[in-house]
Amino acid sequence: MEPDDWQLGGATFNNRMMLGTARYPSPRVMQQAVVQSGVQIVTVSLRRENARERSGQAFWQQIRELDVRVLPNTAGCRSVDEAITTAEMAREVFETPWLKLEITGDDQTLQPDPFALPTAASELTRRGFVVLPYTTEDIVLGERLLDAGCAALMPWGAPIGSGRGLNNAYGLRLMRERFPDTQLVVDAGLGAPSHAAQAMEMGYDGVLLNTAVARAREPATMAHAFSRAVEAGRAAYRAGIIPPLEMAQRSTPLADTPFWHRSRG
């Protein structure tokens, strides 16, 4: 099979997993997880109140040591203006136009705001950002975000940190079918490597996760397991997964096969 490089946002990668950098027991454990997974993209959040403080500078230095591409996010933002302001600060601090756009619409599920996202995305792309929006599997919202100039779509698998996997597999499959030429990344809610493999087997281009690794008993080991699952799922998709059947199908032909009949007497 030919090499399967990943083209995203004008850059090329050979690892289709992205990893978050929050909630680890320590910065050292976070670094180990990144190394063991082999990821080339990590997400980081910027808190406006301490963007210039020494703690923020120390964290940025730890990220630099990993030699990976940084994808800042606007986690915690609840309005278009807040997201744009945070994005501009992140571009200055992390020295990249890449941005994971997040605007929270519901405090319980942390579901993205379907009305604010396209508005913010349109303005951010106008300002030169490479926008990767955290969204739902809604097809209409996906269309609006692509019309706004987003470089990819990142629908949730399940609510952030829930570990529930792919709550709406039908919706995710439909999104893959409707946007065959768009880079699609399942983002959030994955709890086990099998969830990541399932997303990749559907034809998704990558996955993004954080909590399942950061809160594992052995984060580095779990990061490695997820990375292998992503590789396996992608390989299976490219190889061609057989469709499910309603009935059994023989794998051994019957021609020239001898039969022995038991007597009932």
As laid out across the biggest beta sheet, the strand order is 5-4-3-10-9
* Shape annotation: globular
The end-to-end span amounts to 57 Å
Order of helices and strands: EEEHEHEHEHEHEHEHEHH
State mean pLDDT (0 to 100 scale): 91
Low-confidence stretches: none
Find the count of extended strands (DSSP E, 2+ residues): 10
State the share of residues found in helices, binned by percent.
Answer: 25-40%
Find the structural class using helix and strand composition: alpha/beta
By DSSP (H or I, 4+ residues per run), the number of helices equals 9
**Beta content:** 5-15%
How many whole angstroms does the radius of gyration measure?
21 Å
Largest sheet: 5 strands, parallel
Q: What would your notes on this structure say?
A:
This protein is 38% helix and 15% strand. The chain has helices spanning 27-37, 54-64, 80-94, 116-126, 139-147, 169-178, 193-201, 211-214, 219-239, and strands at residues 6-8, 11-13, 17-20, 41-45, 69-73, 98-101, 130-135, 154-155, 185-187, 206-209. A 5-stranded parallel sheet has the order 5-4-3-10-9. Strand 7 (130-135), helix 5 and strand 8 form a beta-alpha-beta unit. It is globular, with a radius of gyration of 21 Å.
